[in-house]
Amino acid sequence: MSRVTSADVARESGVSRTTVSYVLNARADVVLTEATRQRVLETAARLGYTPSAPARALRSGRSDLVLCVLPDWTIGPAIDTLLDHLTTALAEHGLSVLVHIRRGARPLSDLWRAVTPCAVLGLLPFGEQDARAMRQAGIPVVGAALDEDPQPDVFAVPQASIGGLQADHLVSRGRRVLAYAAPHDDRVAAFADRRLAGVRAACERHGLPEPLVTAVDLDVASAADAVRGWHAGGVTGVAAYNDEVALAVLAGVRAAGLDVPGDVAVIGVDDIPAARVAAPALTTVWQAIDAQAAYLATALLAALGLADAPPERPDDVFHVVPRAST
Amino acid sequence: MSRVTSADVARESGVSRTTVSYVLNARADVVLTEATRQRVLETAARLGYTPSAPARALRSGRSDLVLCVLPDWTIGPAIDTLLDHLTTALAEHGLSVLVHIRRGARPLSDLWRAVTPCAVLGLLPFGEQDARAMRQAGIPVVGAALDEDPQPDVFAVPQASIGGLQADHLVSRGRRVLAYAAPHDDRVAAFADRRLAGVRAACERHGLPEPLVTAVDLDVASAADAVRGWHAGGVTGVAAYNDEVALAVLAGVRAAGLDVPGDVAVIGVDDIPAARVAAPALTTVWQAIDAQAAYLATALLAALGLADAPPERPDDVFHVVPRAST
DNA sequence: CTGAAAGCGCTTACAG
DNA sequence: CTGAAAGCGCTTACAG
What we know:
Number of helices of chain A: 13
CATH superfamily of the largest domain in chain A: Response regulator
Order of helices and strands of chain A: HHHHEHEHEHEEHEHEHEHEHEHE
Number of domains of chain A: 3
Oligomer: homodimer
Strand content of chain A: 15-25%
Distance between the termini of chain A: 66 Å
Largest interface: A-B, 61 and 61 residues
């Protein structure tokens, strides 16, 4: 049982491969008799014909694969949701998602040259050199990035604003001395630093002292140490890098014999399922992953000339979900 | 700046494309002068030559893409880790991972026929028809599946054993009336049912009554309702589908004014970061995702004749991590 | 309105 | 030891 080709469909339909190609690609500029069209379509379906992706790619110099480059750290549930949405949205246009997890400093160029994707979606900042080379080769590059990326076609979630939102919320709860619970994982440092910058800026804006910054491991002992340090420094509000760190801080506060939010208020980022059922329920920053995914998908389709409409930047990208911990 | 082809390398090196192909594919059965070999290698590097994946795929009828089929629900952090490991392990052999998230009942056949992957990795059970068609087309199919899959080349995490482990642990803590906290999400029903079956079997083995089964939403109210029901039924130990459900149960116990583990012991599955810092710290079943990923990668490479050694089934696939909640 | 022919970039029998 | 030629499956000018 070898592969069914367009030649098979042509022979069975009594037409040439050219005609088969015209029919199957629904070329509007070519006029065909309806009878021929129907016959070819019917034969293709009956034979279970699927065009060979490699052959099309070789012919056109462009595959129908979208190369999706991920950072080598896990963003958590967000990345799952994002990929899920992207895969679905792109599949509707016949595009498949090829996931590449970026490891070490191995150059991206080998991969994209080999795969000849029709577009590249970066969920992390590329090296400038890689991006330029891809654009030169005519491959649209769309990406999510950190806030100060200068590319106009890059959708950046303003990480600093997330920190600002956290700080503003703590201030609205009457907290005047803040701390930042940083992650210990260096791989997320780029994100953590920008969120911290947002907290810093907000403190300055509100005329508060600089926030105390402490790295917190995801265990009770580490968090309790941090909490004791902050308490000694008069801290009454803690902005955590994400919900996992925030949950560790909650545990640290308990271990230190203090009360949330009485002694110290805590706010995270992500709204993971565990946040809602924490003790006390964790206030957090919710991110509209769906909207971000939809934006990226549309931006990508637009870059390929496949979108119905240009992408609309989502406006409510994130907001505070107030709960008992603040 | 158009693509660098093997013809370019041939011309620059003063040899034929045949020779270039022989050198670059390091064919052991062909003897070439070392000088020629070096010259070709050097030219290829200087020109930045990358063989066209589509062209190779068209020629050989097989791409270097591994199609990885995921279920349409998110398994959580486990899937991230798994993909991460797989991508890395396969990249060492020049293989790329193409992720496909299964949606609805759309047939898999279109995708694999179009992509012509060199292998398919299923992280969910396939339809028997799809699997047979792929095997007939000569595409190795490797997969993780639920426990009672009959295929010998399928690596199945025995889901029922996870439930059994949970129940055994609760019994070892002196609990004689158990409940099962099931997820509300139908998409994970296949997993949940098998884990529950394991709990049931363990209860029978220990001469305990049938476990009470209640679906628990990931919020306090739903969990509190469930807890009150169980308490009225004399339940003293709860096995939860996963850690997220278990954390909800902890919150429900608190809301119901009861004590963990005094009144009721709780055990989850996954060991997510939040489990360790929960109040009280959550006992859970740890799964060796790394080992599973390594096994799958090796099994896949073996099926392709690329592995150094046949895969060794990991033995410690999971074990209980005892903490304060039991 | 439809077909014969070329060519995308690669590898591999087959000759020299 | 190396080269000329064919062919993987597709699409698209170019002729009829």
